[in-house]
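Entry 0007
Protein: Crossover junction endodeoxyribonuclease RuvC
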Amino acid sequence: MGIDPGLTRCGFSVVQAGRGRSVIPVAVGVARTPSTDDLTARLLGLSKAVNEWMDDYQPDVVAIERVFERGNVSTVIHTAHAVGVLVLAAAERGLDVQMYTPSEVKKAISGNGRADKKQMTAMITRILGLSEAPKPADAADALALAVCHCWRAPMLARQAAVAEQQAKQLAKQKEMIAAARANALAKES
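Output (structure tokens):
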């Protein structure tokens, strides 16, 4: 599941990873909350929307855009509140959450970490073989996040396996050193 977080418009998408770089679109949409409502009502609305999506589609993992400073502190704070609600919904289901910066997603999808919205929408439309571009941009961004994760997941899994193996080797080395020290101390006694 890809999520482009936002308080006014939050993009949701669900894709299925195929073989290699093949990705199949399943669903895409946008949850909206009125800017005239108070923050608590808007967060509640967002919570209901993400929970409905998660209930309906049962994702295995959630890819969310990482909050970054856009120049407007108020926007960042509101987006951070939204991200908290979205991450909590995933955590309540025991889902893994992967966060990607906009430039990571742009680089993965278009090859250019500075691609604009138009380029990204065109690329995601082409990659997924859609007959028309997803609208609004939040929907296209949610799809891009999901595709980005599908493409990066194998590498992340390999990195996790390597880290786990290294941790086991380090623990074994520590055990061997401790045993050697204990043996040396016993010989000195």
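Curator remark: The chain is about 60% helix and 15% strand. The radius of gyration is 22 Å.
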